[in-house]
């Protein structure tokens, strides 16, 4: 469905995240109950760590996408609730592993699991959550959904490894970076909407539209994360500002700054990426500001949201469709 054939979508009613959540409140409560039921383990430490990370105050955007997509397709049934819980388990497993890889000590305003219990238990409980999600996936008995989610876990792992190989490498291009965030972030957003459409046996063109919607929303979400890592407030974000630079991650604001700064600014940013740490944070931010790299990154995120919204034209008008449009807009307007 080429985007060139689409007309501009009509404006959707403005909607807060709380209002969006209210649309699926009963379903969300069912997802939360299922998540807590599935956290049971004969090993107490597994339950303790899994419960800590799963119930640590995340927005649960990905399971929300599952529920809203199902509502937009007119059928939010118990299998959809199960899929939403599976998606959240997969996401939580990646968080446990990411925090170990990134040596992070703060997430959502709380100490990370690896900061509290150590790296080894965090990795192993992440493995437990991956395994539990596939136990639940088998119960769905839907080969198409199993194919989508098994492929998704492979792509996410590849994206994380690719990001790891890019650390402290200032030679990463914008195209290479977009490939990384497609794998490590957008892929699970995409699986949330695509998997729901497949589960409900939506027409092929609708499945493809929802797949692209999820992908573009995920890209926008990560691009705004890149901005907030430099512009955000640590108390609001629940993590340390400047973590990306401290770890030597060449995210889009830095990539754009290097491409558009003068020679002195380019060398400064390149050296900061290679070195890692925050010693030159102020100088780097001056280069990023002078090249309008934050504005550029936001414009890329806004373009992703526009493409996401265009895909929803295939869906019938409904409060859930409006909520999907509003959620995409919230993704680029958020401060946390």
From TrEMBL:
<protein>
    <submittedName>
        <fullName>Polyprenyl synthetase family protein</fullName>
    </submittedName>
</protein>
<dbReference type="Pfam" id="PF00348">
    <property type="entry name" value="polyprenyl_synt"/>
</dbReference>
<dbReference type="InterPro" id="IPR033749">
    <property type="entry name" value="Polyprenyl_synt_CS"/>
</dbReference>
<comment type="similarity">
    <text>Belongs to the FPP/GGPP synthase family.</text>
</comment>
<keyword id="KW-0808">Transferase</keyword>
<keyword id="KW-0460">Magnesium</keyword>
<keyword id="KW-0479">Metal-binding</keyword>
<dbReference type="InterPro" id="IPR000092">
    <property type="entry name" value="Polyprenyl_synt"/>
</dbReference>
<dbReference type="InterPro" id="IPR008949">
    <property type="entry name" value="Isoprenoid_synthase_dom_sf"/>
</dbReference>
């Amino acid at each position: 469905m080429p985007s060139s054939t689409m007309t501009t979508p009509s404006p959707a009613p403005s909607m807060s995240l709380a209002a969006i959540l209210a649309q699926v409140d009963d379903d969300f409560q069912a997802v939360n109950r299922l998540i807590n039921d599935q956290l049971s383990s004969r090993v107490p430490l597994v339950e303790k760590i899994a419960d800590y990370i799963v119930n640590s105050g995340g927005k649960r955007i990905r399971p929300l996408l599952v529920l809203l997509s199902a509502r937009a397709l007119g059928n939010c049934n118990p299998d959809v609730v199960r899929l939403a819980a599976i998606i959240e388990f997969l996401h939580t497993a990646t968080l446990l592993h990411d925090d170990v890889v990134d040596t992070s000590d703060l997430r959502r305003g709380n100490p990370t699991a690896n900061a509290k219990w150590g790296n080894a238990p965090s990795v192993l409980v992440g493995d437990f959550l991956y395994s539990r999600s596939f136990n639940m996936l088998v119960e769905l008995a839907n080969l198409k959904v199993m194919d989508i989610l098994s492929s998704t876990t492979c792509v996410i792992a590849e994206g994380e490894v690719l990001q790891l190989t890019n650390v402290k490498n200032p030679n990463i291009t914008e195209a290479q970076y977009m490939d990384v965030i497609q794998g490590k972030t957008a892929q699970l957003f995409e699986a949330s909407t695509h998997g729901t459409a497949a589960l409900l046996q939506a027409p092929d063109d609708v499945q493809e539209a929802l797949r692209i919607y999820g992908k573009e929303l995920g890209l926008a979400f990560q691009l705004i994360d890149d901005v907030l890592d430099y512009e955000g407030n640590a108390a609001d974000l629940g993590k340390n500002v400047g973590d990306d630079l401290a770890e030597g991650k060449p995210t889009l604001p830095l990539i754009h700054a290097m491409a558009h700064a003068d020679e002195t600014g380019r060398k400064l940013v390149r050296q900061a990426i290679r070195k890692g740490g925050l010693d030159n944070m102020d100088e780097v931010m001056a280069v990023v500001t002078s090249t309008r790299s934050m504005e550029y990154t936001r414009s890329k995120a806004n373009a992703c949201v526009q493409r996401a919204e265009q895909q929803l034209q295939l869906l019938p008008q409904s409060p859930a469709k409006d909520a999907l449009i509003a959620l995409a807009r919230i993704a680029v307007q958020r401060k946390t």
